[in-house]
Amino acid sequence: MIGMSETTEPGDNGVAAVLTTPQAWRDFLEQYSKLYVKVRADEEELDELLDEDQLEALDQDGQVELWLGEAPAREEALAAAEERLGVRFPPGLRGFFLASDGWKRLDDHVDGAHPCGRVRWMRDSEAGSRVIETYASIPGNEDDVQLFRRSIEIARGEDFWLLDPTDAGPDGEWAAYEFAPKYGDTTRHPSFSALFRSGYESMEEDADEDMD
């Protein structure tokens, strides 16, 4: 049953500095790629992502050079996306696109981050519009529906990653939400980079547990 979702704000998210420059994002995403392969990728994914030399290196010391992202977006493409949506992306999101125009692997419930040319309002995406229609049909979901209608969809799979341009912090970063339709849960983060970091921190916790 779908009901009013609970919005939470994890205490540790946003403590680290917001990633804004392409180089800062590049450095972080390189570490993310390495940790994803070590912690999250199953055998089928490893065969898809790595060549024979990389698989051998992974077996030996667990370290491989890998990039799960895309080529950087061109400023012209970024400006076109902003014009299409009628917004100016926050510094953290701009830095991400200028480091990698999209991302291939996030977690089991989110396939990957869209390239800037595919970023859209949630209300305009096929899956997003279905969710909004469903939630709007059930009393008590008004706050969620308003959030969905004003949010930009930055990533999607079974779950959604959303950015709310109307909720900007002093640094200009938009609030970011991880939304799980299956459970009706909406988790708030202070920025896109904080949301991305939360996945990295989750992988770090898994890695620590594997070492115990």
Describe the structure.
With 212 residues, the protein is an alpha+beta fold. 45% of the residues lie in helices and 17% in strands. Strands 1, 2, 3, 4, 5, 6 and 7 form a seven-stranded mixed sheet that branches. It is globular.
In short:
With 212 residues, this protein is α+β, with helices and mostly antiparallel strands. It has helices at residues 22-39, 43-49, 52-61, 75-85, 91-99, 126-136, 142-150, 192-211, and strands at residues 7-8, 110-113, 120-121, 152-157, 160-168, 174-180, 185-189.
> What's the count of strands?
7
- Given as residue ranges, the uncertain stretches (5+ residues, pLDDT < 50) are 1-15
| Termini Cα gap | 38 Å
Silhouette: globular
Q: What is the percent of helical residues? A: 40-55%
Written as H for each helix and E for each strand, in order along the chain, the element string is EHHHHHEEHHEEEEH
**Average of pLDDT:** 84
Beta content: 15-25%
Main sheet characteristics: 7 strands, mixed
Overall structural class, as computed from helix and strand content, comes to alpha+beta
Q: Number of helical runs?
A: 8
Radius of gyration: 18 Å
